[in-house]
Each structure stands twice: as C-alpha cells, then as structure tokens.
Automatic annotation (TrEMBL):
Positions with biased composition (Low complexity): 1-16
GO cellular component: plasma membrane
Stated name of the protein: PTS system mannose/fructose/sorbose family transporter subunit IID
Chain segments annotated as coiled-coil in the UniProt record: none
Positions of transmembrane segments: 145-162, 169-190, 210-234, 255-276, 282-301
Amino acid sequence: MSTQETSTTQTISPESGGSQSGASQKISLSTKDLSHEDRKMLHGIFWHSFNVFAMYCGGARAGASGFMWSIWPAIERFYPTKEGRCDALKRHSTWYNITSNVGTFCMGLVAAMEKENSEKPDFDTHSIDSVKASLMGPMSGIGDAIFWGVLRVIAASVGMALCADNGTVLGPIAFLLIYNVPSWICRWVLTVLGYRVGSSFITKLYEGGLMGILTKLAGTLGLLMIGAMTASFVKFNMILSIPLPQGDPVMIQTYLDTIFKGLVPILYTLGCLKLLRKNVSVNWLIIGTMIIGLGLGLLGIV
C-alpha cells in the first residue's frame, strides 16, 4: 500500500501570548515540505511499526523491544555515536503497550522529542518516558474501541455474510480490506501527525519555559494510570475473621479497607517492583505469586 499523504490540515490550540494571540496554527499532514531525511525516517517508522508486537517481552516489558525497533530509524539518524544510540535504546526498554493501529502517533512524537534531545544538551530525557507513559492509557482506549470493538466486528460481519450467501472468496478478502485499509491509513497519518505536533509543541514549550511542568504533569498521569491498573487487576480479599463470643465475627478485610482500600495489592505491587529493580527474574516473581496465592488459599486466609 502506498503511504502517499494527503494535504489535510488540523487546527490545534491557539498560541498564547504575543502579538499573534488567538491565531490558530495548522499542522499539515503532507510531508512535501519536510526534508528528504525526515520523510525517509517517517517511512521507516511506519513500516517498522508493523512488527511492534512481534517481539513481545512478557508482562514486564510487553512491546518494549518492538517499540525500540519501530523508532530505530529516528535513533539511528539523530544519534551518530554508539553511546548515544545505546542510551536511547535503554530509555525505551521500559514497558510499552498501545494498540498498534494508533501507536504510531506516540512513535512520531517520541521521534520529535529524540530530535530535540540530540540538539539540546539541557533536554530532560525523563520527559520522553513521561509523555510516552501518559499516552498509553488514552490511546489504547481509543484504539481498542475503534479497531477491536467496532471496525473488526463490522469487517467480520460483512465477510461472514458474503461467505454465508454463496461461499465466495470475496468474504475473507472483504474482511481484510475493510479492516486493514483504514488501519494502514491511520498508522501513516498518525506517524506524520505525531512528528509534526511533537516538533512544534516541544519548541513552544521550551520557548515558554513549560517543559518542566509538562514532565511533571505527564509523570503524574502515568502514576495515576499505574495506580488504577493496580487497583483493577491485583485482587486480594481476605476471608479470615476473628470470632467473638457474642455477635458476628470481625472481618479483617473490612478493617483493612477502612484503613486504606487496596492496601495489600499496592504493597505487593511495590514489593514486586523493588525486586524487579534488583534484577529478580519475572518468572520467579510469577512462580512466587502462585505459591503465595495457593498457600494463603489452603490456609483459609484468602
């Protein structure tokens, strides 16, 4: 499929301050005004992004290896030295999971931030991790809803209807086209949009001295996401109770929830994080969690 772009534009927030306050800036989705190196890099990111989850690294890193491979064209371009490339790859070896159909926006944005980092010695590299982490929840929610919840169902319905009517081979072909054509277009458009928005946005943040604020906000949003995921997916319900001579027994879980709802899950998650930082294998943590769960269950505690 050709990645030939359109000349559509998108209006973003007005520029604050200055004589041009209230004027809107338009971000073009065309790559005609970009340099040959920029276009080559964006095409590389686009094609590499199809393998983002082909190198899945388990629950600890998820698609980290695929993300590093996807943005390798940017790292290779902006960091000519081996040391610079290694630092960039280490920076992106952390957990990554965004719906692949829309994840190219994050890749384009990160490419723009890596460019700024290579040009500005005082660039805060923590902002790259923070922005990337803050995009995972919102973008995955949008991507899953559109591509997995709606488009895939529509494509499958059309394909199965064609197969059921006359058994034609057009059924699977229709499914592949209905699902993949919008997906490919979305991948390319978001790659360009992420890079353009990133370049313009980061420059304005530096000029206004707001980069530190963005880093803190993105970091806070990332922490909120981790806290919400911990509360949602790490379950601990103690059934142990203290019998009383008269009246109902005292349920320990009720008092734990009164002190701090979700206290045990968050403490256990933080404990696993500490062990991970001490290079304890994820496999050992999984085995240990299973043993602890079975043991507490057999003892009648949970």
